[in-house]
Every structure is written in structure tokens, then in C-alpha cells.
Write a structure and sequence with these properties.
Blueprint lengths: L3 H10 L4 E6 L31 E4 L9 H4 L2 H8 L5 E5 L26 E4 L6 E4 L2 H14 L3 E5 L20 H13 L2 E3 L1 H9 L4 H8 L10 H16 L13
Parallel strand pairs: 1-2, 1-3, 3-6, 6-7
Antiparallel strand pairs: 4-5
């Protein structure tokens, strides 16, 4: 007779895998509740998957950087639930350029992907903290996901809406956080989706004014409305389909 532990283990092994999403407000936002009808692409992604075979859990949260998603304990909570066969998709970069130490958000990471650190007495949390580079935090998510038997997928951040009067030309070469996300994926040998490029290739068909009206809220040039979030989610799916050897493709609806 199987023990209760063995029975629980068998039950867990029969559960469908989970796709965990981590990131900032461009991945998960108010879901249309206030804030100018702001939506993140993560809340539109589930409809592209077979829900009987894969569970999509969006743990992204507005205002967070690669650093503060970790320091607030949000990643640790996911690790406690992560199982072999799961997937972790991450997108950070919009908030990482912020101040490393202030009394309002203190969310910035050190630029780059190296091992540089900064020792601070955090003015916001009142705690001593060792701050790392953007790449260090991204690598930590990847490595710990792998240690738990999960597949990691890094996405570049999504582009902001071009400003009125800007020329919307062919997507620029990767730089800063987009480039560093790509470099971390290469270094850690994990899947990478250049979400910026996929979305920008659609943007070049329209004027900044049309893009703002169609895909973005009135609040700013960063946050998408539901139509923009759905378009971005479709580009995520396009990226997933392009990943050779990625098991996540097998859970997409035809």
C-alpha cells in the first residue's frame, strides 16, 4: 500500500504543468479596472493554450524590476510551487533603470550583466542590501528555475509607443536591457524571444498617432489597452512557435 506521501507525489505528477509569468506592468496590470483601461499581455496569453493540458499563472506585478521582484519575496513564493516540467517566462527591463536607492521606489539594478555589486542601506526598506546587475538577477531566475526542473524562457521587454513626430522605421539593433536579456539567454543556454522586434515589426506599418489610439491607454506611452495587450500576447505566441525544441509549443492550440 502506498504511503500518503507517495500518493501525494503521484497526484502531483499527474497535474498539468504550469507556465509561470514574471515581470512588470506590461505583463500584468489592472485588467481593465481603472488606470485608463491598462492591460498586460500576460493576462491575454492563456487563451492561446489548451487549458486542460497547461495552466497559465501570471505572477507579474506593476512597478517591479528584476531586482525588486526578487527582494520582495515574490520569486521565492513561485519556487515553493514550481514543479519539474513547468515553464517560467520572464520579462523585465522597463523599471530597472530607476534609482538604486531612494525613499520612494528603490528599484533600479546595476546596468549590464556582470558581477558588479553596490552595498546600500535602502532608504525605502530601511534594510542593508547588496544590489546586483540586471543580468545577475535574470541569471538567478533562470538557474533556480532549472534547478527545480523547469524550462526558462527570457523575453526582451516590449517597446513603448513611438512619440508623435517620431519616424517609425525598421526595428533598431538591440541595446541596453533588450541586448542584456539576449546575452543572458545565450550565456545560460535558455530560450529567448525578442519580443521587442516582433512587436516593432507590426508598428512600422502605422503612424505613432495611430498606434497610440489603437494600442495604448491615454495615461502614457508605455501601458497598453486590452487590444494592445492582445496583440502583444499574439506576438509572444509567435515567438514561442519559433523556438526550436521548446516543449511549450506542444501546449498551444492549433
Amino acid at each position: 500500500m502506498l504511503s500518503l506521501f507517495a500518493l501525494a507525489t503521484v497526484a502531483l505528477s499527474q497535474l498539468p504543468p504550469t507556465l509561470w509569468l514574471i515581470g512588470d506592468s506590461t505583463v500584468r496590470n489592472g485588467q481593465g479596472k481603472g488606470d485608463g483601461d491598462q492591460w498586460g499581455w500576460g493576462d491575454c496569453l492563456g487563451k492561446f493554450f489548451d487549458s486542460e493540458k497547461l495552466k497559465v499563472v501570471n505572477r507579474a506585478i506593476g512597478g517591479r524590476s528584476s531586482r525588486t521582484f526578487l527582494t520582495e519575496g515574490r520569486w521565492e513564493t513561485i519556487l515553493s510551487e514550481l514543479r519539474p516540467g513547468d515553464f517560467v517566462m520572464m520579462q523585465f527591463g522597463h523599471n530597472d533603470p530607476g534609482a538604486i536607492n531612494d525613499d520612494s521606489r528603490a528599484r533600479g539594478s546595476i546596468r549590464g550583466i556582470g558581477d558588479e555589486t553596490a552595498e546600500i542601506d535602502n532608504l525605502l526598506t530601511k534594510m542593508h542590501e547588496t544590489v546586483h546587475t540586471f543580468g545577475w538577477y535574470m541569471s538567478k531566475y533562470v538557474r533556480e528555475a532549472k534547478e527545480h526542473g523547469a524550462t526558462a524562457i527570457i523575453c526582451s521587454y516590449v517597446p513603448r509607443c513611438p512619440r508623435p513626430g517620431d519616424k517609425v522605421e525598421k526595428h533598431p539593433e538591440p541595446s541596453s536591457y533588450r541586448l542584456w536579456a539576449q546575452q543572458v539567454a545565450a550565456r545560460e543556454k535558455v530560450f529567448y524571444i525578442d519580443l521587442y522586434r516582433l512587436i516593432w515589426d507590426s508598428y512600422v506599418q502605422e503612424t505613432p498617432e495611430a498606434l497610440k489610439e489603437k494600442y495604448f491607454t491615454s495615461a502614457d506611452f508605455t501601458h497598453t489597452n486590452r487590444k494592445g495587450a492582445e496583440m502583444n500576447a499574439g506576438k509572444v505566441v509567435e515567438g514561442i512557435r519559433s523556438l526550436a525544441g521548446c516543449g511549450l509549443k506542444g501546449y498551444l492550440l492549433p
